[in-house]
Amino acid sequence: MIQALSYDDVLLVPQYSDIDSRTEIDISTDLGKNVKLTLPIIASPMDTITGARMATGMSVAGAVGVVHRYNTPTAQREHVAQFLLETRGDDLIGAAIGVNGDYLERARLLFNAGVGFFCVDVAHGHHALVRHALQVLRKTFGHNIHIMVGNVATLEGVNDLADWGADSVRCNIGGGSICSTRIQTGHGLPGLQTIFECAKTDRDVKIIADGGIKNSGDMVKALAAGADAVMVGSLLSGTDETPGPLERSPDGTQWKSYRGMASKEAQVEWRGKYSSFEGVATRVPHRGPVAAVLEDIERGIRSGLSYSGARTIAELQAKARFVRQTTSGLSESRTHILSRSW
Ligand code: XMP
Q: Ligand 1 mean position to 148 CA, how many Å?
């Protein structure tokens, strides 16, 4: 049995650097077929994370948002249309689709509205239904549009999706902050190990580290392990740009909702019923504009590359030296004065 590691189990060893300023560092990523980001972050297709406003906030920062699919095709198209007005009209936005029901009609509407890429968004992406949907999508839209697909947790999953027509693959099953898949089903693989495994692919496909990324340090670890970009939900939750109203507590604290798309609450709202629920619903403190959150993350990523002496993500991947840390190493890594008893 292999030992599977996650983000907190490892650290990157600091290395010689001749980088004078973090502005020398280029953290752009090219996912292929016009999906180019100057900040390698993708906002999750979740109904409490990405609608038109989040996609706009992401685009302004050089990142990208994937509009969620938990609405009617027309309502989802409206998000795309609103984004293309609010922005220059040719800025990048992705849109999620499923693999059954109205997915093709939805894809046609989104394509005609000017979406930059599709994200085939299912919980278990290494599946015959995904293979069929990819065949249909490629037949209908050709090979020029980028198709992101997921999620998977294995190299076989990445290779099969690439062979079936995926340009990029979301990797990680059940590692997200709001996920309960691993508890509910006993299946999954720790997030960073997933990236180590998936990045071994010899196919021409990009790796998206999705879920379980708690801070910019985890992003640097994911990129160093071989991811081309990261997808995040919780790190963007609670910002002004997330869909949904602000809730105010009697003491004046403000909150926004954040929930797994397989949570009971999300399923009941979108399908009128629930089956197996593999996520939770919660609320998070209101955190203001997403621009400020992204700026902090970007500074952290740039600083991370400089500690490895790397000017680009490719250089980081070539130079990265991971070590395993013990639980006392992890305690030391945290700002431990905050938990000290005086
Ligand atoms: P973070 O950790 O960034 O994770 O909040 C976001 C990612 O979690 C996935 N996702 C789910 N996974 N049950 C799951 O097992 C769910 O209900 C659920 N909703 C979202 C998804 O990959 C997302 O990008």
A: 16
CB-count burial class (<10 Å; 0-12, 13-18, 19+) for 337: exposed
Are 231 and 151 within 8 A, CB to CB?
Answer: no
At 258, the amino acid letter reads Y
Helix or strand holding residue 159 (H, E): helix 155-164
The tens digit of pLDDT for each residue in 15-73 reads 999 999 989 999 999 999 999 999 999 999 999 999 999 999 999 999 999 999 999 99
Backbone angles phi, psi at 259, to 5 degrees: -145, 150
Quick check: 232 and 209 in contact, CB under 8 A? Answer: no
Chain center to CA of 316: 20
Distance CA(134)–CA(129), nearest Å, equals 9
The residues spanned by each domain of the chain are 7-239+253-329
Strand partners, 99: none
Q: Which atom of ligand 1 is nearest to the CA of 211?
A: 4
CA 174 to centroid of ligand 1, rounded, Å: 7
Domain covering 7-239+253-329 assigned CATH 3.40.50.970 in the classification:
no
For 38, the 3-state DSSP assignment is: coil
CA 176 / ligand 1 centre spacing (Å): 4
What gap in Å lies between CA 35 and CA 92, rounded to an integer?
A: 7
**Quick one: pLDDT at residue 278?**
96
Q: What element of type H or E holds 137?
A: helix 128-141
**Percent of residues in the chain assigned helix, strand, coil, to nearest 5:** 40, 20, 40
Give the residue from 236, 288, 290 showing the smallest Cα distance to 258: 236
How high is the pLDDT of residue 338? Answer: 82
Q: Among 44, 213, 215, 280, which is best to mutate for testing ligand 1, by the most ligand atoms less than 8 A from CB?
A: 44
